[in-house]
Protein backbone atom coordinates (compact mmCIF):
# COMPACT_ATOMS: atom_id res chain seq x y z
CA UNK A 1 0.00 0.00 0.00
CA UNK A 2 1.48 3.38 -0.96
CA UNK A 3 1.99 6.21 1.52
CA UNK A 4 -0.57 8.31 -0.36
CA UNK A 5 -3.27 5.80 0.60
CA UNK A 6 -2.49 5.91 4.33
CA UNK A 7 -5.38 5.55 6.75
CA UNK A 8 -7.58 8.61 7.19
CA UNK A 9 -11.16 7.34 7.68
CA UNK A 10 -12.02 4.77 10.35
CA UNK A 11 -8.44 3.55 9.88
CA UNK A 12 -9.05 2.92 6.15
CA UNK A 13 -7.16 4.06 3.01
CA UNK A 14 -7.86 7.52 1.58
CA UNK A 15 -9.25 5.92 -1.56
CA UNK A 16 -12.13 4.55 0.49
CA UNK A 17 -13.01 8.11 1.50
CA UNK A 18 -13.15 9.12 -2.18
CA UNK A 19 -15.41 6.17 -3.03
CA UNK A 20 -17.41 6.85 0.14
CA UNK A 21 -18.11 10.50 -0.77
CA UNK A 22 -18.77 9.75 -4.44
CA UNK A 23 -21.35 7.16 -3.56
CA UNK A 24 -22.79 9.40 -0.84
CA UNK A 25 -23.78 12.00 -3.42
CA UNK A 26 -24.95 9.39 -5.90
CA UNK A 27 -27.20 7.98 -3.18
CA UNK A 28 -28.39 11.50 -2.37
CA UNK A 29 -29.59 11.78 -5.94
CA UNK A 30 -31.10 8.28 -6.00
CA UNK A 31 -32.91 8.50 -2.66
CA UNK A 32 -33.92 12.11 -3.29
CA UNK A 33 -35.69 11.04 -6.45
CA UNK A 34 -37.02 7.82 -4.89
CA UNK A 35 -38.44 9.72 -1.90
CA UNK A 36 -40.60 11.76 -4.24
CA UNK A 37 -41.37 9.14 -6.88
CA UNK A 38 -44.43 7.33 -5.48
CA UNK A 39 -45.96 10.59 -4.20
CA UNK A 40 -45.27 12.31 -7.53
CA UNK A 41 -46.97 9.53 -9.46
CA UNK A 42 -50.06 9.36 -7.24
CA UNK A 43 -50.50 13.08 -6.49
CA UNK A 44 -49.14 14.82 -9.62
CA UNK A 45 -49.51 12.27 -12.42
CA UNK A 46 -52.70 10.88 -10.80
CA UNK A 47 -51.72 7.25 -11.25
CA UNK A 48 -53.57 4.57 -9.30
CA UNK A 49 -51.78 2.94 -6.38
CA UNK A 50 -51.40 -0.33 -8.29
CA UNK A 51 -49.99 1.41 -11.38
CA UNK A 52 -47.59 3.52 -9.35
CA UNK A 53 -46.41 0.42 -7.46
CA UNK A 54 -45.77 -1.37 -10.75
CA UNK A 55 -43.85 1.59 -12.22
CA UNK A 56 -41.87 1.96 -8.99
CA UNK A 57 -40.94 -1.72 -9.00
CA UNK A 58 -40.09 -1.71 -12.71
CA UNK A 59 -37.86 1.36 -12.35
CA UNK A 60 -35.92 0.06 -9.35
CA UNK A 61 -35.60 -3.29 -11.11
CA UNK A 62 -34.21 -1.69 -14.27
CA UNK A 63 -31.83 0.43 -12.19
CA UNK A 64 -30.34 -2.82 -10.87
CA UNK A 65 -30.57 -4.83 -14.09
CA UNK A 66 -28.39 -2.54 -16.19
CA UNK A 67 -25.36 -3.07 -13.88
CA UNK A 68 -25.27 -6.69 -15.05
CA UNK A 69 -24.32 -5.48 -18.53
CA UNK A 70 -22.45 -2.45 -17.23
CA UNK A 71 -20.13 -4.57 -15.10
CA UNK A 72 -19.06 -6.61 -18.11
CA UNK A 73 -18.49 -3.44 -20.15
CA UNK A 74 -16.37 -1.96 -17.34
CA UNK A 75 -14.22 -5.09 -16.93
CA UNK A 76 -13.64 -5.72 -20.63
CA UNK A 77 -13.92 -2.40 -22.46
CA UNK A 78 -14.01 0.87 -20.52
CA UNK A 79 -12.28 0.12 -17.25
CA UNK A 80 -13.81 0.96 -13.88
CA UNK A 81 -12.83 4.62 -13.75
CA UNK A 82 -14.17 5.53 -17.17
CA UNK A 83 -17.35 3.57 -16.43
CA UNK A 84 -17.91 5.56 -13.22
CA UNK A 85 -17.38 8.92 -14.95
CA UNK A 86 -19.60 8.08 -17.92
CA UNK A 87 -22.31 6.52 -15.77
CA UNK A 88 -22.39 9.47 -13.36
CA UNK A 89 -22.69 11.94 -16.25
CA UNK A 90 -25.62 10.03 -17.77
CA UNK A 91 -27.39 9.76 -14.42
CA UNK A 92 -27.00 13.50 -13.74
CA UNK A 93 -28.67 14.21 -17.09
CA UNK A 94 -31.51 11.83 -16.21
CA UNK A 95 -32.13 13.47 -12.85
CA UNK A 96 -32.35 16.90 -14.44
CA UNK A 97 -34.84 15.47 -16.96
CA UNK A 98 -37.09 14.51 -14.03
CA UNK A 99 -37.74 18.23 -13.57
CA UNK A 100 -39.88 18.09 -16.72
CA UNK A 101 -43.12 16.09 -16.58
CA UNK A 102 -43.10 15.21 -20.30
CA UNK A 103 -39.70 13.47 -19.89
CA UNK A 104 -40.83 11.27 -16.99
CA UNK A 105 -40.32 7.83 -18.54
CA UNK A 106 -37.30 8.91 -20.60
CA UNK A 107 -35.69 10.28 -17.45
CA UNK A 108 -36.25 7.03 -15.54
CA UNK A 109 -34.69 5.06 -18.40
CA UNK A 110 -31.70 7.43 -18.61
CA UNK A 111 -31.00 7.14 -14.88
CA UNK A 112 -31.21 3.35 -15.09
CA UNK A 113 -28.75 3.24 -18.01
CA UNK A 114 -26.20 5.47 -16.26
CA UNK A 115 -26.57 3.44 -13.11
CA UNK A 116 -25.58 0.34 -15.05
CA UNK A 117 -22.07 1.67 -15.62
CA UNK A 118 -21.69 3.45 -12.28
CA UNK A 119 -23.00 1.01 -9.71
CA UNK A 120 -20.82 -2.11 -10.15
CA UNK A 121 -17.68 -0.14 -10.99
CA UNK A 122 -17.48 1.94 -7.82
CA UNK A 123 -17.63 -0.66 -4.98
CA UNK A 124 -15.56 -3.16 -6.97
CA UNK A 125 -12.58 -0.78 -6.52
CA UNK A 126 -12.62 -1.24 -2.73
CA UNK A 127 -10.86 -4.61 -2.71
CA UNK A 128 -7.93 -3.21 -4.71
CA UNK A 129 -7.20 -0.68 -1.93
CA UNK A 130 -5.90 -3.46 0.34
CA UNK A 131 -3.16 -6.03 0.35
CA UNK A 132 -4.16 -9.67 0.51
CA UNK A 133 -5.06 -10.64 4.07
CA UNK A 134 -5.52 -7.05 5.29
CA UNK A 135 -8.00 -7.42 8.19
CA UNK A 136 -9.50 -3.98 7.53
CA UNK A 137 -11.06 -5.17 4.29
CA UNK A 138 -13.75 -7.13 6.10
CA UNK A 139 -15.30 -3.97 7.56
CA UNK A 140 -14.61 -1.66 4.63
CA UNK A 141 -18.02 -2.39 3.11
CA UNK A 142 -19.81 -1.37 6.29
CA UNK A 143 -17.87 1.92 6.31
CA UNK A 144 -18.77 2.34 2.64
CA UNK A 145 -22.39 1.56 3.49
CA UNK A 146 -22.41 4.48 5.95
CA UNK A 147 -21.50 6.75 3.04
CA UNK A 148 -24.47 5.43 1.10
CA UNK A 149 -26.74 6.26 3.98
CA UNK A 150 -25.44 9.76 4.69
CA UNK A 151 -26.68 10.61 1.22
CA UNK A 152 -29.89 8.71 1.90
CA UNK A 153 -30.39 10.67 5.13
CA UNK A 154 -30.05 14.20 3.78
CA UNK A 155 -31.88 13.48 0.51
CA UNK A 156 -35.45 13.34 1.92
CA UNK A 157 -34.77 16.42 4.07
CA UNK A 158 -33.62 18.48 1.08
CA UNK A 159 -35.23 16.93 -2.00
CA UNK A 160 -38.32 15.82 -0.07
CA UNK A 161 -38.90 19.24 1.48
CA UNK A 162 -38.38 21.04 -1.83
CA UNK A 163 -40.68 18.64 -3.64
CA UNK A 164 -43.44 18.50 -1.01
CA UNK A 165 -43.62 22.23 -0.24
CA UNK A 166 -42.25 24.07 -3.30
CA UNK A 167 -42.91 21.73 -6.23
CA UNK A 168 -41.91 18.19 -7.19
CA UNK A 169 -39.59 19.38 -9.94
CA UNK A 170 -37.47 21.43 -7.55
CA UNK A 171 -36.83 18.25 -5.58
CA UNK A 172 -35.87 16.34 -8.70
CA UNK A 173 -33.54 19.18 -9.74
CA UNK A 174 -31.77 19.04 -6.37
CA UNK A 175 -31.20 15.32 -6.92
CA UNK A 176 -29.44 16.12 -10.20
CA UNK A 177 -27.15 18.61 -8.46
CA UNK A 178 -26.20 15.91 -5.96
CA UNK A 179 -25.23 13.50 -8.73
CA UNK A 180 -23.05 16.17 -10.35
CA UNK A 181 -21.33 16.80 -6.99
CA UNK A 182 -20.47 13.10 -6.74
CA UNK A 183 -18.94 13.16 -10.21
CA UNK A 184 -16.70 16.13 -9.31
CA UNK A 185 -15.48 14.42 -6.13
CA UNK A 186 -14.57 11.27 -8.04
CA UNK A 187 -12.65 13.20 -10.70
CA UNK A 188 -10.74 15.10 -7.99
CA UNK A 189 -9.89 12.01 -5.93
CA UNK A 190 -8.72 9.58 -8.61
CA UNK A 191 -5.10 9.93 -7.50
CA UNK A 192 -5.99 8.07 -4.28
CA UNK A 193 -7.64 5.15 -6.06
CA UNK A 194 -5.98 1.84 -6.98
CA UNK A 195 -4.51 1.50 -10.48
CA UNK A 196 -6.71 -0.03 -13.15
CA UNK A 197 -6.15 -3.78 -13.58
CA UNK A 198 -5.60 -5.01 -17.15
CA UNK A 199 -8.84 -5.43 -19.09
CA UNK A 200 -9.47 -8.85 -20.54
CA UNK A 201 -11.33 -9.13 -23.87
CA UNK A 202 -13.99 -11.81 -24.16
CA UNK A 203 -11.88 -13.85 -26.58
CA UNK A 204 -9.15 -14.15 -23.96
CA UNK A 205 -11.43 -15.52 -21.25
CA UNK A 206 -10.82 -19.30 -21.12
CA UNK A 207 -13.85 -21.47 -20.41
CA UNK A 208 -11.79 -23.26 -17.77
CA UNK A 209 -11.88 -20.17 -15.59
CA UNK A 210 -15.61 -20.46 -15.17
CA UNK A 211 -15.27 -24.16 -14.42
CA UNK A 212 -12.61 -23.44 -11.79
CA UNK A 213 -15.02 -21.20 -9.92
CA UNK A 214 -18.18 -23.23 -10.47
CA UNK A 215 -18.79 -23.91 -6.76
CA UNK A 216 -18.34 -20.24 -5.90
CA UNK A 217 -20.75 -19.14 -8.61
CA UNK A 218 -23.34 -21.68 -7.46
CA UNK A 219 -23.08 -20.43 -3.87
CA UNK A 220 -23.40 -16.83 -4.99
CA UNK A 221 -26.45 -17.78 -7.07
CA UNK A 222 -28.04 -19.26 -3.94
CA UNK A 223 -27.30 -16.08 -1.98
CA UNK A 224 -28.76 -14.02 -4.84
CA UNK A 225 -31.97 -16.07 -4.78
CA UNK A 226 -32.29 -15.57 -1.02
CA UNK A 227 -31.72 -11.82 -1.36
CA UNK A 228 -34.35 -11.70 -4.13
CA UNK A 229 -36.90 -13.04 -1.66
CA UNK A 230 -35.65 -10.68 1.05
CA UNK A 231 -35.96 -7.59 -1.13
CA UNK A 232 -39.58 -8.42 -1.92
CA UNK A 233 -40.21 -7.27 1.65
CA UNK A 234 -37.31 -4.83 2.08
CA UNK A 235 -38.14 -2.60 -0.91
CA UNK A 236 -41.62 -1.81 0.43
CA UNK A 237 -40.04 0.95 2.55
CA UNK A 238 -40.01 3.31 -0.44
CA UNK A 239 -43.32 2.04 -1.81
CA UNK A 240 -46.26 0.83 0.29
CA UNK A 241 -44.69 1.73 3.65
CA UNK A 242 -44.26 5.29 2.34
CA UNK A 243 -47.96 5.35 1.44
CA UNK A 244 -48.81 4.17 4.96
CA UNK A 245 -46.74 7.05 6.37
CA UNK A 246 -49.00 9.42 4.45
CA UNK A 247 -52.39 7.86 5.25
CA UNK A 248 -51.96 5.59 8.29
CA UNK A 249 -49.87 7.70 10.66
CA UNK A 250 -50.73 10.48 13.04
CA UNK A 251 -47.81 12.75 12.15
CA UNK A 252 -48.58 15.46 14.68
CA UNK A 253 -45.81 16.46 17.10
CA UNK A 254 -46.52 19.39 19.43
CA UNK A 255 -48.68 21.23 16.92
CA UNK A 256 -46.27 20.51 14.01
CA UNK A 257 -47.16 18.00 11.32
CA UNK A 258 -44.06 16.03 10.30
CA UNK A 259 -43.73 15.98 6.48
CA UNK A 260 -44.30 12.49 5.10
CA UNK A 261 -41.04 12.56 3.12
CA UNK A 262 -38.95 13.17 6.25
CA UNK A 263 -39.63 9.67 7.52
CA UNK A 264 -37.50 8.37 4.62
CA UNK A 265 -34.50 9.87 6.44
CA UNK A 266 -34.97 7.63 9.47
CA UNK A 267 -33.47 4.54 7.86
CA UNK A 268 -30.18 6.11 6.70
CA UNK A 269 -29.87 8.13 9.92
CA UNK A 270 -30.14 4.94 11.95
CA UNK A 271 -27.60 3.24 9.67
CA UNK A 272 -25.10 5.97 10.56
CA UNK A 273 -25.85 5.72 14.27
CA UNK A 274 -25.88 1.92 14.46
CA UNK A 275 -22.92 1.06 12.22
CA UNK A 276 -20.01 2.14 14.52
CA UNK A 277 -21.19 0.17 17.60
CA UNK A 278 -22.13 -2.78 15.42
CA UNK A 279 -18.67 -2.79 13.82
CA UNK A 280 -17.08 -2.66 17.28
CA UNK A 281 -19.22 -5.60 18.39
CA UNK A 282 -18.28 -7.66 15.34
CA UNK A 283 -14.61 -6.73 15.75
CA UNK A 284 -14.60 -7.92 19.37
CA UNK A 285 -16.24 -11.19 18.34
CA UNK A 286 -13.68 -11.66 15.57
CA UNK A 287 -10.79 -10.99 17.97
CA UNK A 288 -12.25 -13.62 20.29
CA UNK A 289 -12.63 -16.11 17.43
CA UNK A 290 -16.42 -16.01 17.66
CA UNK A 291 -17.34 -14.24 14.44
CA UNK A 292 -20.44 -15.57 12.65
CA UNK A 293 -20.22 -16.77 9.07
CA UNK A 294 -21.68 -14.42 6.42
CA UNK A 295 -24.74 -16.57 5.72
CA UNK A 296 -25.62 -16.83 9.42
CA UNK A 297 -25.24 -13.08 9.85
CA UNK A 298 -27.48 -12.40 6.86
CA UNK A 299 -30.09 -14.92 8.05
CA UNK A 300 -30.24 -13.24 11.46
CA UNK A 301 -30.71 -9.88 9.76
CA UNK A 302 -33.63 -11.20 7.72
CA UNK A 303 -35.30 -12.44 10.92
CA UNK A 304 -34.88 -9.00 12.49
CA UNK A 305 -36.49 -7.34 9.44
CA UNK A 306 -39.36 -9.82 9.71
CA UNK A 307 -39.87 -8.70 13.33
CA UNK A 308 -40.06 -5.08 12.17
CA UNK A 309 -42.89 -5.84 9.75
CA UNK A 310 -44.70 -7.97 12.30
CA UNK A 311 -44.56 -4.97 14.64
CA UNK A 312 -46.42 -2.87 12.04
CA UNK A 313 -48.94 -5.68 11.58
CA UNK A 314 -49.57 -5.73 15.33
CA UNK A 315 -49.96 -1.94 15.43
CA UNK A 316 -52.53 -2.10 12.62
CA UNK A 317 -54.50 -4.96 14.15
CA UNK A 318 -54.59 -3.39 17.61
CA UNK A 319 -55.44 0.12 16.41
CA UNK A 320 -59.05 -0.55 15.45
CA UNK A 321 -58.78 1.58 12.30
CA UNK A 322 -57.33 4.61 14.09
CA UNK A 323 -54.13 6.23 12.87
CA UNK A 324 -50.99 5.04 14.62
CA UNK A 325 -48.67 7.42 16.41
CA UNK A 326 -45.50 8.19 14.50
CA UNK A 327 -43.42 6.84 17.41
CA UNK A 328 -44.33 3.30 16.32
CA UNK A 329 -42.89 4.13 12.92
CA UNK A 330 -39.62 5.21 14.51
CA UNK A 331 -39.48 1.91 16.39
CA UNK A 332 -40.18 0.04 13.15
CA UNK A 333 -37.27 1.74 11.42
CA UNK A 334 -34.92 1.05 14.33
CA UNK A 335 -35.59 -2.69 14.14
CA UNK A 336 -35.70 -2.70 10.33
CA UNK A 337 -32.36 -0.89 10.01
CA UNK A 338 -30.60 -3.20 12.44
CA UNK A 339 -31.65 -6.17 10.31
CA UNK A 340 -30.62 -4.42 7.11
CA UNK A 341 -27.08 -3.88 8.44
CA UNK A 342 -26.71 -7.62 8.94
CA UNK A 343 -27.85 -8.41 5.39
CA UNK A 344 -26.95 -5.91 2.70
CA UNK A 345 -23.34 -4.83 3.47
CA UNK A 346 -22.47 -8.45 4.28
CA UNK A 347 -23.90 -9.66 0.97
CA UNK A 348 -22.15 -6.98 -1.09
CA UNK A 349 -18.85 -7.69 0.64
CA UNK A 350 -19.24 -11.43 0.06
CA UNK A 351 -19.78 -10.98 -3.69
CA UNK A 352 -16.81 -8.58 -4.00
CA UNK A 353 -14.54 -10.81 -1.87
CA UNK A 354 -15.30 -13.97 -3.83
CA UNK A 355 -14.91 -12.33 -7.25
CA UNK A 356 -12.40 -14.11 -9.54
CA UNK A 357 -9.35 -12.07 -10.60
CA UNK A 358 -10.12 -9.35 -13.17
CA UNK A 359 -13.87 -10.02 -12.90
CA UNK A 360 -14.57 -7.75 -9.94
CA UNK A 361 -17.14 -5.46 -11.56
CA UNK A 362 -18.85 -8.39 -13.29
CA UNK A 363 -19.24 -10.34 -10.05
CA UNK A 364 -20.46 -7.29 -8.12
CA UNK A 365 -22.94 -6.77 -10.95
CA UNK A 366 -24.32 -10.21 -10.15
CA UNK A 367 -25.16 -8.89 -6.66
CA UNK A 368 -27.25 -6.21 -8.34
CA UNK A 369 -29.02 -8.92 -10.34
CA UNK A 370 -30.50 -10.03 -7.02
CA UNK A 371 -31.62 -6.47 -6.37
CA UNK A 372 -33.16 -6.37 -9.87
CA UNK A 373 -35.19 -9.52 -9.37
CA UNK A 374 -36.02 -8.49 -5.81
CA UNK A 375 -37.29 -5.10 -6.99
CA UNK A 376 -39.53 -6.78 -9.55
CA UNK A 377 -40.96 -9.04 -6.88
CA UNK A 378 -41.40 -6.04 -4.56
CA UNK A 379 -43.40 -4.23 -7.24
CA UNK A 380 -45.71 -7.20 -7.65
CA UNK A 381 -46.05 -7.72 -3.89
CA UNK A 382 -46.84 -4.02 -3.52
CA UNK A 383 -49.86 -4.37 -5.80
CA UNK A 384 -51.53 -6.30 -2.97
CA UNK A 385 -51.53 -3.17 -0.78
CA UNK A 386 -54.92 -1.95 -2.01
CA UNK A 387 -56.41 -5.46 -2.15
CA UNK A 388 -55.94 -6.53 1.46
CA UNK A 389 -55.95 -5.06 4.94
CA UNK A 390 -52.80 -3.22 5.94
CA UNK A 391 -52.25 -5.50 8.93
CA UNK A 392 -52.40 -8.62 6.77
CA UNK A 393 -50.09 -7.02 4.22
CA UNK A 394 -47.42 -6.24 6.82
CA UNK A 395 -47.74 -9.78 8.20
CA UNK A 396 -47.15 -11.11 4.67
CA UNK A 397 -43.96 -9.03 4.43
CA UNK A 398 -42.79 -10.53 7.71
CA UNK A 399 -43.34 -14.04 6.34
CA UNK A 400 -41.43 -13.18 3.16
CA UNK A 401 -38.45 -11.98 5.22
CA UNK A 402 -38.58 -15.16 7.33
CA UNK A 403 -38.55 -17.28 4.16
CA UNK A 404 -35.36 -15.53 3.02
CA UNK A 405 -33.82 -16.19 6.45
CA UNK A 406 -34.44 -19.92 6.08
CA UNK A 407 -32.87 -19.92 2.62
CA UNK A 408 -29.78 -18.06 3.85
CA UNK A 409 -29.36 -20.35 6.85
CA UNK A 410 -29.50 -23.41 4.59
CA UNK A 411 -26.55 -22.03 2.57
CA UNK A 412 -24.29 -21.58 5.60
CA UNK A 413 -22.20 -24.71 5.08
CA UNK A 414 -21.55 -24.00 1.40
CA UNK A 415 -20.60 -20.37 2.05
CA UNK A 416 -18.03 -21.48 4.65
CA UNK A 417 -16.37 -23.76 2.08
CA UNK A 418 -15.87 -21.07 -0.58
CA UNK A 419 -15.10 -18.04 1.61
CA UNK A 420 -11.35 -18.12 2.35
CA UNK A 421 -11.51 -15.30 4.93
CA UNK A 422 -14.06 -16.90 7.26
CA UNK A 423 -12.90 -18.32 10.56
CA UNK A 424 -15.08 -20.94 12.29
CA UNK A 425 -17.13 -20.07 15.35
CA UNK A 426 -15.86 -21.44 18.65
CA UNK A 427 -18.83 -20.45 20.80
Folded structure, characterized:
The chain has 427 residues and is mainly alpha-helical. It has a single domain, classed as Up-down Bundle (Growth Hormone, Chain: A), CATH 1.20.1250. It is 73% helix and 3% strand. The protein has 15 helices and 6 strands. The protein has helices spanning 14-44, 49-78, 80-97, 104-121, 137-166, 168-188, 207-212, 214-234, 240-247, 266-287, 294-319, 326-353, 360-382, 390-410, 412-418, and strands at 7-9, 12-13, 249-250, 252-253, 256-257, 324-325. The strands form 3 sheets. It has a two-stranded antiparallel sheet with strand order 1-2. A hairpin with a 2-residue loop joins strand 1 (7-9) and strand 2. Helix 12 (326-353) runs antiparallel to helix 13 (360-382). The chain is globular and about 55 Å long. The model is unreliable at 1-6 (pLDDT under 50).
Percent strand: under 5%
What's the arrangement of strands in the largest beta sheet?
A: 1-2
Reported CATH architecture: Up-down Bundle
Tell me about the largest β-sheet.
2 strands, antiparallel
Which residue ranges are poorly predicted, with pLDDT under 50 across at least 5 consecutive positions? 1-6
The total domain count is 1
Portion in helices: over 70%
Number of helices: 15
Question: How is the CATH topology named?
Answer: Growth Hormone, Chain: A
Distance between the termini: 35 Å
User: In total, how many beta strands?
Assistant: 6
State the secondary-structure class: mainly alpha
Radius of gyration: 21 Å
What letter string, H or E per element, gives the SSE order?
EEHHHHHHHHHEEEHHEHHHH
Shape: globular
